[in-house]
Structures are given as C-alpha cells and as structure tokens.
Amino acid sequence: MMESFRHIYVRLCKDHHIDPQDCVLEKLKSLEVGSKSKAVLDLSTNSLTPKTCCVLGKALASDRTFVEIKFADCMLAEDAIKGLAQGLAYNTFCKKLDLKGNNIHAAGTEAIGKMLRQNKSLVSLCLEWNGMGMLDNSFAVFCEGLGSNTALRALDLRNNQISHDSVSELAAALKRNVHLRALDLRWNNCGLLGGRALLEMLQSNKTISRLELAGNNVPTDISKSIETAVQNNADRQVIIDENLKRTQTMSQHIRELELDKKLQVNELLTSLDNQQEIHRKSHRFSTEKIGNLQLALEERKGAFNSLAAKLSMAETELALSEQKVNEYNSSLNRLKVEMQELAANHVTEMRKEKEDRANEELKYLKEISETQDKNMQLQNKVEDLERKCRQQQEQIYDLKEQVTHLQSELTMKGSQYEERITQEKLRQKEAMRDFEQYKQKEMIHMKQESEDMEKILRDRISKLESQRLDMEEEISRLKSTNVSDKLNAEEQLQTLKHRLKSEEEQRHVQLEEKIRVLQTSRDELQSLTNQQVATISQLQHKNSNLQMEVDNLRRQMEELNQELAQKNNYTMAEVGKVKAELNKLQNKLDQERSVQSEMREKLATVDSQMSEQMLKHRRQMEEKEKEVVLLEEKLKGRELELVRLREEEAQRVQVLQSAILNYVGKQGTSSR
C-alpha cells in the first residue's frame, strides 16, 4: 500500500513536471520499511512547496492507506492549503488531520471550510496556532462548512485570533451542527459577547460535551454557566451513550434470539424434510415390496391354475382310461362266459361224438371205402374252410383298421377339444392380463395420488389413513372380484367337462352299438380267441402301466399341493412381515408426529419467552425514557434556576450601581 502511494506520488509529480521532494520520499520509504497496515503520514516541520502540496492532495483524494495525516509547523502557503484541501475533500479513509502552526488565514480558511462541506470521513481536525479569525468573511465560510459537516467530532481552534464576531458566527454554525462533541477555543478573543453567543448556542445544541474557553476574557459567571451547560450536555451524552449501548446490546440479543429461532426453525424444517424423505422411501419400498408380492402371487396363481388345468386333464384322461378299462373288463368277462359256454357245449358234443364214433366204428370199418371218398371230400371242404378262415382274417384286419381309424378320430377330436381348452385358457389368461393391467393402472393412479397427498402430509395425515383403509377395501374388493372371476372360469371349465363327457358318452354308445354289431360275428371269430387273449393280456399290462402313471400323477399332485401349501405359507408370512413393517412405519410416523408436536410446543414456548423478553425490554426502554424525561425536566428546572439567579444577580448589580451612583453623588455634593 505504501509503495503504491509512493508510485502514485512520483507519477503525479512527473505528470505535473515537478521534482518530488526528498523529505516526502524519505518519509514514504521509512513507512514502507515499517510496513504498517494503517500508517500515519507525518510530514511535520517540513517545508513543502505549494506544487508538492497540490500533488499530495491529488494523491490523497483516492488514498485508502493513511488514517492520520500531519502537516504541523510546516508554514504552508495559501496555495498549498488549497491544494491539500481540494484533495482531502474527496478522501474517504483519513480520520485525523493536523494543520497546526501553518499561518492559515483568508483563502486557506475558506478552502478548509469548503473541504469540511464535502468531506465525510474526518473525525478530528487540529487548527492550532493559525490566523483563521483575522478576517470575518473567510471565517464565516469556514463556519458554513462546519455547520453542514456531519462527520467531525473534535475541532481544535486554539490561538487563531478569533474575535467575538467570529465566535458568534461559529455559534450560529454549531446550532446547525449536532455531531461535534469537543471544541477547543483557548487563547482567542471571545470576550463577553462571544461567551453569551456560546451560551445561547449551548441552549439549543445538546451534543457538545467538552468546550475549552481559557484565555478568552469571558466573565466568570458566563464561563461557569457555559461549564454547567457543557457538563449537562456531557451527562446527557453519557446517558444517551449508555442508552445506545443498551439498545445495541438489546438489539444484538434480539438478533441472536431471532437467529437461534431461525436456526431452530431451519433444523425443524430439515428434520421434517428428512422425515418426509424417510417416509417416502419407506412408502416406495413398501409399495415395491407389495408389487413384487402381488406379482409373485399372480405368478403362483398362474402356476396353480396351470396345475389345476393339468390336474383336470389328468383326471379326464384317468376317467376315460378307467371307462375304457371297465369296458374292456366287461367285454373280457362276456367273452370268458361265452368261451366257457362254448367249451361246455364242445365237451358235450365231443362226448356225443365219441359215443357216436364208438357206435359207428363198426360202421366206419365197414364203410372205409366210403370214408376215403368222404375224406377226399372233407379235404376239399378243409381247403374251403381255410379259404374262409383267410377271408375271416382279412375281415378281422379290416375291423382292426376300422378300430385304429376310430381311435385316430378319437385322438383327433381329443386334440381338438384340447385346443379348445387351450383357447379357453388363453382367453382366461388374456382376461387375467387385462385385469392385471387394469389393476396396475389403478395402482399407478393410486401411487400418483399418494405422492400428491404426501406433499401436504402435515395437513392430511388423517385423510391418508382413511385413503389407506379405502385402498385396503378396494384391494379386498379386487380380490373378491378375482375370486369370483376364478369361480366363473372354474364353472365354465366344469360345463366344458360336462359337455365333453356327454359327447364322449354318446360316442361310447355308438361304439357299443358297433360292438354289438360286431358281436353278431362272434361265432366267426372263435378261431381268434387266442389272439384276443393275447391282446387282453397286453391291455392288462397297459392298464397296469396306466395305473402306475396315475399313481405317479397323484404323487406329483400331492407334492404340488404341498409346494402350494408351503408357498401359501411363505406368502402369508411375507404378507405378515409387510404388515409388521407397515405397522412399524405407522409407529414411526406416530413417533414423528409426537416429536413434531413437542417441537411445536417448544417453539410456542420459545415464542412466548421471546414475547415476554420483548415486553420486558420495552418496559425497560419505557422506564429509561421516563428517566430521560425526568432528567430533562431536572435540567429545565436547573436552567430556570440559573435564569432566576442571573436575574437576581442583574438586580443586585443594578442595586449596587444605583448605590454607587448615590454614593458618588453624595460625595460630589459634600465636596461642593
């Protein structure tokens, strides 16, 4: 800072084509070595030229380095004073200025007055040992500048040859200036008139708390009255300072309390925001969990429905296979009975034939020749029978082909029915998907509503609880609708099962009619009984295999039922956990509500305490104001007493003068 000021000074000297003075440069260099943050520019007892002072004034106009500037005993010329005053008029950093012993008068006094009119930073101004009061006109300009100044607090005008007229001008200016605290007028020529002017000024000016008037030829009574007025001003200023300090401390205390209150409110708001965020996170987590659980439940419901469909298919297949087995068993029993009857008839016929043969052996022996011929005929007949057997076998093969064709038709129709069932299942799945989409839309809508309601959670907590109950009722209603849809689907499946069963029964009736038709050719199929027995054994083996498969399916069904029971238990446990978490969240919310209510009560107590403290402070301020009013009344009483004493003293003086005149007149008459 010092170096920059020195560079500015040197640059301005070069701009004005002036050689910088060595004393100024040496002083600035010494200040740079000291490197003080708030330095004092002391150029006292140095002979400075007017041009140097003009450059210094321009440098000091924008300076923010020196708090105190001293030009004491430099015997500056008027132009030098003008240059310094013009620069210091725009300075906003300097607080103290010392111009003692510079023979300031006339134009210099006017320049300082103009400087005081514009300057707003000088607090102390020393003008001792000058000649500012030699010309009344220039001192009047100085007094005008002093009257318009609002920053100056101390003014030293000792030994300035100020007359009583100049003092009256100064007093008139000080009536307008209510900021000056200390004034030193020692060793001037105030006299009686100047003292009275100052006393009259002190009656209106209550801010001057120190006034020095020694060596001014002021009467003792006026000086004493001035001292009492100044003392009263000092006491009043002390009281005002104390009140200002108290008001400042009170205002600072109130600000601290307001800051504490704001901090508490901010902490409460932050805690409320954190709690709201925690509540939102917990609500989102719970909604996500509920959504995942609902998805898992829907998946398990789908798996359960698929398993139920598989069970129904297996049951229908089992019923069909059991019906087929029963039909085959009935047909086998009928064939066994018929075979037994045929065997009994055959045995009886064989017996009869043996008897006939025994009876006819003799005849056959006799008729050997005839039998040979008949044998040839019988051989021919055997060939014919073999042909017939072949034809019958071909017919049997045709019948088998018809049976396989019928079985293929049955399988085709079964596949068609299965396709219909799958289509019905797809329709049901599409209905379930539509229902799930509708449910998801409703859940999204409800989530949006819950988020909107969470924004105004403080005002609508009760409404949220009622909405939560409504949501639970809607969920139960949706569950009931889901159950009703499931029951409707099961009823539709049952109706389809009944239709299929009726159609299969009709087909079984048709097949039984065909079997009855085929039973008419039972006599021709006697030779194929062994083959049919083999097929029956194969069918029995297939039946045993089917029974094994049915047992395996039943075991799988039992295992699936157990898994379903376990999954249902798991889902119920998860639902219980979610409910417990929701209860915990509700408890947390209740606790947070209680904490918020406690914090609100604390805030109310703090507000009440603040209001009580404000009332107390107001009462104290009112009491202090009352005390100030009492003190002002006391001051007025003292001033009245002083006026009364002055009047009494004036009366005494008049009495003494009249007595002296009477005494002088008596002595003159006696001498005559």
Automatic annotation (TrEMBL):
Keywords: Coiled coil, Cytoplasm, Cytoskeleton. Residues 311-409, 447-648 form a coiled coil. GO terms for cellular component: centrosome; plasma membrane. It holds the Pfam family LRR_6. It is found in: Cytoplasm, Cytoskeleton, Microtubule organizing center, Centrosome. PANTHER family: LEUCINE-RICH REPEAT-CONTAINING PROTEIN 45, NY-REN-58 ANTIGEN. This is Leucine-rich repeat-containing protein 45-like. The gene is LOC106070453.
